[in-house]
């Protein structure tokens, strides 16, 4: 209920700050729930992706430190966020999203690289996709990379790719992880070139 209440408010705030969010190839999103996977470029990407893929509701990971503030904890929990200890992740990092995806009501937003300043892909998204039997949907954000750019009303672009399915029988060996890492990177590169060939991400 809170998620559906807050979403139009957030959409209005984005519109006031920047203007309309431009969404491309939403028709590529499969039926049912899924896992949105993206290269991490800004802290507001989860918001843009959640708005772009509306009316689907999303779970997402948030660093455990954010849950120490009682007000922020209330907002995050009711927005379907769950805490992750980056230093000591633990099994809940997989169990919580897999359970949520299997229930079928929520999708998941995840950044396989983990941080905005890393190009190294983690295997978590692949394992979650395998265990939940849900497809990975590549998505990219192109637009301002600083809050100042956001306020200058530079265009916000979200582009969805075709779903990627992982066979449950696939073993998560280093070889297979590398294979899917390459598939994901190629999918993101394809979307970037498709949306704007001149776009180049530079970590801020």
From TrEMBL:
InterPro entries: Plipid/glycerol_acylTrfase. Keywords: Acyltransferase, Transferase. PANTHER family: 1-ACYL-SN-GLYCEROL-3-PHOSPHATE ACYLTRANSFERASE (PTHR10434). Residues 34-144 form the Phospholipid/glycerol acyltransferase domain. One of its GO terms (molecular function) is 1-acylglycerol-3-phosphate O-acyltransferase activity. It holds the Pfam family Acyltransferase. This is 1-acylglycerol-3-phosphate O-acyltransferase. One of its GO terms (biological process) is phosphatidic acid biosynthetic process. SUPFAM superfamilies: Glycerol-3-phosphate (1)-acyltransferase (SSF69593). SMART domains: PlsC (SM00563). Coiled coil: none annotated. It comes from the Bacteria.
